[in-house]
Amino acid sequence: MTLTLTLRAQPPARVDVSALIPERLVGLHESAVGALDLRCGGETVGVGDLFEVSGAGVEDEELVFAGDLRRFDRIGAGMSSGGIEVRGDVGAWAGAEMSGGVLRIFGDAGARLGAAYPGARVGMTGGEIVVTGDAGEEAGAGMRRGLVAVGGRTRGGAGLRMLAGTVIALGGIGAEAGLGNRRGSLVSGRPVEPLPAYAFAARFQPLALRLQLLRARSLGLAVGDALVSGMWARWSGDRTELSRGEILIFDDEGSRE
Amino acid sequence: MTGYAVGATEVADTFAEAFPMRFARVVITAATEAWALEAARSMTGFATSVIGCKCEAAIERSVMSAETPDGRPGIAVLLFAMDREGVGKRVVERVGQSVMTCPTSACFDGLPGAEGTVALGGTLRYFGDGFQASKVIAGQRFWRIPVMEGEFLVCESVGVGRGVGGGNLVIGAGDEDVALAAAQAAADAMRGDGIALPFPGGIVRSGSKVGALTSKSMPASTNHQMAPTLRAQVSDTLVPDGVGAVFEVVIDGVSEDAVREAMRRGLHAAAGAGATHVSAANFGGKLGRFHFPLSELRDPP
Asked: Is A208–B137 a contact, with Cβ atoms under 8 angstroms apart?
């Protein structure tokens, strides 16, 4: 039975839930999971005090969080395999420095989604994150590989200093996206003014993006057909870096969603 | 020894002799099925016999848009060679020259989870001259190779499976028209999942024997025993009385079962289309590991 953690009540301070990733919970039953400790501000609290725990950790099954988790940071951070499904909004650093697995958030995500920690050069190195709502600042910062797909908007600074990988925002990437981007792909489903360090290349149908959008759709993101089969404008940059990165902006005359 | 009859068709008491081969399946997609077919036809051209062409390849089937990785119409192609290395070289050559060059095409692995793999995009990517980029999508690496049209998308590697090459039916009738119609009916019935018919239209009119009577250096020469025009000239003719033309349908398949069932479909289709004789080619049973006795194909599919 799927391991499900349902929020009982809002915690008194922000909670770090990075310890609760599928690979660490395989084989643990609800009582063992409930007895684990989490950092809550300067204190330590039991998982069972914060969440109603049901089921057990089973390989190849998703770990489910349910509730308004905006005060819960680092959900899925550092995970390398397995899946997490969140039914609600989450706090900052969700999926930070992930290396594998799938994190699906049916709600909004806070700042630094799938990002590198302060001072670290490399963020996410693999895996997939899907957010059906919006995401905060600097989503995918420092990313080396993997996919961050957001159904809504990302706030400023998405893909900051990214090395490679893909950040998709169907509702549009915010301002100053892709600053210091080396080989990464930023994808905006809405018109956006790229940084001056990007230059327009061409309109085309990027098949790799098509596969990524279909993949995101299969993970639960609502991706319109127009985006999947439409034309995209490719802007190359950051020209102060390698200029091997790109911002793809949906540009389908006449069928814009 | 006697065979059996299917309607008015005599089926010889013999067997087809086939060999272990390795194969890859690639799925070619394009903006339209017509372009995917162009790429597939080009890729499978001049791939009739492993002796002369280094590989055997054919279109396996159309793949509906809903089944392809990119949601566009596709064609599945099977390519057979004697070993994994051979599959690797041929698939890179052929995808590089015939698929990458074809407008709007993309190329995917049609054999995920196979026991072995060979590099495809991993080698072709160098055509990108440093401008290529890779994406890992759902755990699989793809290469984006910039081309004049836009980008050619190709999977990093393709799976290689263990298949069977050289299954066959030899179909004869009183005159060429009837024999050809029967062979065509057989080829049409044999095509399907897991089957490649590498010869033109699936049919060989110049079946061969191993070696030659007149030369020690030739690897193969005409099957004089099955040539109707030589019936009165050679002492070892195998052309049955009343047969004026003979065609062979050669089958490569992804498994022994796939080949056997294709032969079953072909045999009964040929019988229904006017073949007077159905036989099979073998080398005395000493060369090939797989034997397909026609006696096992008596029950219709």
From this structure: yes
What is the nearest CA distance from A163 to chain B, expressed in angstroms? Answer: 12
**Residue B255: both structure tokens together:** 């498994």
pLDDT at A1: 77
Q: How far apart are CA B224 and CA B244, in angstroms?
A: 14
Q: Which structure tokens are listed for A20? A: 């609760």
Q: Which of B253, B191, B202 has its CA nearest to residue B20?
A: B253
**What pLDDT, in 10s, does the model give residues A58-103?**
777 789 999 999 999 999 999 999 999 999 999 999 999 999 999 9
Look at residue A256 and tell me whether its pLDDT is greater than 50: no
How far off is chain B from A168, nearest CA to CA, in Å?
Answer: 13
**Structure pTM?**
0.94
- Which of B133, B138, B144 comes nearest A215 by C-beta? B138
Is B64's Cβ below 8 Å from some Cβ in A? no
Whose CA is closest to B192, among B257, B247, B274, B246?
A: B257
Inter-chain CB proximity A215 and B133 less than 8 Å: no
Name the residue among A145, A214, A228 with its Cβ closest to that of B136. A145
- Integer Cα distance of B98 and B111 in angstroms: 20
> Where do the domains of chain B lie, and which CATH numbers do they carry?
4-18+163-297 (3.30.70.520), 21-161 (3.30.70.520)
Q: Using CA atoms in the order B147, B152, A163, A250, what is the torsion angle rounded to 10 degrees?
A: 90
Question: Are the Cβ atoms of B136 and A206 closer than 8 angstroms?
Answer: no
Q: CB of B71 within 8 Å of any CB in chain A?
A: yes
CB contact under 8 A, A212 and B142: no
User: pLDDT (tens digit, 9 = 90+) per residue, A160-176?
Assistant: 999 999 999 999 999 99
pLDDT band for position A242 (cuts 50, 70, 90): confident
CB contact B106 to A (< 8 Å): yes
Going by C-alpha positions, the residue among B17, B13, B14 that lies closest to residue B286 is B17
Query: What 8-state DSSP symbol labels residue B233?
Result: T
| pLDDT surpasses 80 at A57 | no
How confident is the prediction for chain B on average, in pLDDT? 96
Among A80, A211, A234, A248, the residue to mutate for chain B (most B Cβ within 10 A) = A211
Kindly report the nearest CA distance between residue A210 and chain B, in angstroms.
6
Q: How many CB atoms lie within 10 A of CB B131?
A: 11
Q: Let me know the angle formed at the C-alpha of A253 by A251 and A254, rounded to the nearest 5 degrees.
A: 135
E strand intervals along chain B: 4-6, 9-11, 15-29, 56-63, 74-81, 106-109, 116-119, 133-137, 140-146, 151-155, 157-173, 195-196, 203-204, 208-210, 220-222, 245-253, 277-279, 290-293
Cis peptide before B188 (omega within 30 of 0): no
